[in-house]
Amino acid sequence: MHSRQEQLQAFDRLLTVMNDLREKCPWDRKQTFESLRQNTIEEVNELAAAIVKQDMTDISKELGDVLLHVVFYAKIASEIGEFDIADVCNRLCDKLIFRHPHVYGQAAAASAEEVSKLWEQVKLKEKDGNHSVLGGVPDSLPSLVKAYRIQDKAANVGFDWEQKEDVWDKVKEEIAEFEAEAKEAIPQGEDPTPEQKQKMENEMGDILFALINMARLYHLKPDNALEQTNQKFIRRFNYIEQKAKEKDTPLNKMSLQQMETLWQEAKRTTEDRNE
Taking the model in full, what pTM does it have? Predict the structure, then answer.
């Protein structure tokens, strides 16, 4: 690992390169907050994907891409006299110190759970903070992540199940309600009316919300869990597709039983053996 001095030198080098690019590169010189926004979202998603894969080399690379955008935005802002990278760092440090009174003040917190509750209490006291418990949850978050954050914030002020096992009954209740709604909406395989579809959608939302709550109570991240399953499905389906090519048989010409047999073969591969 590098020394603190080497780390500071590396960051200084990045700032110097950013200055050079902003001055000498036509593309970099043209960029604005608005033009970089979508690229930033993509870079963060690529970092998240690398984290799921636990590829440390890729994580390091993607962190660099995200850091580039932080420095880029600060450089643009400095050119119009709004703020610079020092303001970004100092404001972040000030916020972290304020939100960690158990480290920099007199408060006490002996566990991660106590820290989370203290964090929410402190945030409500911030002058520029949100004065609503759920006010700090961004509207732009993906629904899966937003649901987790909503539940977590509510739990930090005491609105939570007394025992995590209690959530199982809630999940079963919501599934039963969806099943009843579905049977009523399409009793003989007919398409549901818009009103019936809306009711089913509401019940499906309740199921997902309850499942996300279950994940939170068991200290699991549902978005990570779902992405791991996405990747597992892709690996297994790609196996089916590859075997179909080897047999010179189009996928849409294979029977469901043939595909199921290949699916079970895929499950027995080394990568997916324990999944």
Answer: 0.64
